[in-house]
Amino acid sequence: MPRKFIKRYIPDRRSFHETTQLRPFKPFLHHPCLWHLNRRTVSGAVAIGLFCAYLPMPLEMLVAAMMAILFKVNLPISVSLVWISNPVTWIPLYGAGYLLGAKILGKEIVEFDDMTMSWLMSQVLPLWLGSIILGCLLALAGYLLTRGLWRIHIIRNWQLRRNRKEKICHSKEL
Fold first, then answer.
1. Taking the domains of the chain in order of start, what are their residue ranges?
2. What separation in angstroms does the CA of 12 have from each of 74, 76, 84, 107?
């Protein structure tokens, strides 16, 4: 994955230092791995961001920031990917999580008309179980996909460089 492409779309270090929600983490934001763009830090950040996006709770960004600091992966990417979970995507994300959790726990799926607030409060366990399982699967897929795409990009660059060198050597021989 090209660093220039990623740098265009992620926030810079200064904007993170000015964010009020991340103020408690300010002493921990100086580690260089939190800002580097390499295969390890980016793929780890993708995994953390996608996992935290599936957590059915408020303030997933803070969880993603804490995990990025703990695992020393790219902080802006991990926090930015949490925004996959937003009011538009809540129903598909958490609905799928609830359905998976209810299926695993053997709970009966209730029609939409029969849902009440007391019923919703009793469904926390299937929601969390399904969301954590799907979050782990999505994180693993994102991690592997990022590592694979980064590797393909590196191999392509090596091949282009080798072709250029061969072309130069071949033109000198003529």
1. 3-95+127-173
2. 11, 8, 20, 46
What Rg, from alpha-carbon coordinates, does the chain have?
Answer: 21
Q: Residue 167 corresponds to which amino acid?
A: K
Alpha-carbon distance of 60 to 139, in angstroms, equals: 15
Give this prediction's pTM.
Answer: 0.77
CB 73 within 8 A of CB 40: yes
Tell me the per-residue pLDDT of 28-78, one tens digit each, with 9 for 90 and over: 777 777 888 889 999 999 999 999 999 988 888 889 999 999 999 998 899
**For residue 15, how many other CB atoms are within 10 A of its CB?**
11
| Rounded Cα–Cα distance for residues 142 and 32 (Å) | 23
Residues ≥6 apart with Cβ < 8 Å to 159: none
Q: 80: buried, middle or exposed (CB in 10 Å: 19+, 13-18, 0-12)?
A: middle
Produce one character per residue of 101-139: b if its CB has 16 or more CB atoms within 10 Å, e if not: bbeeeeeeeeeeeeeeeeeeeebeebbbbbbbebbeebb
- Helical spans, DSSP H, in 54-123: 60-71, 75-81, 90-105, 117-121
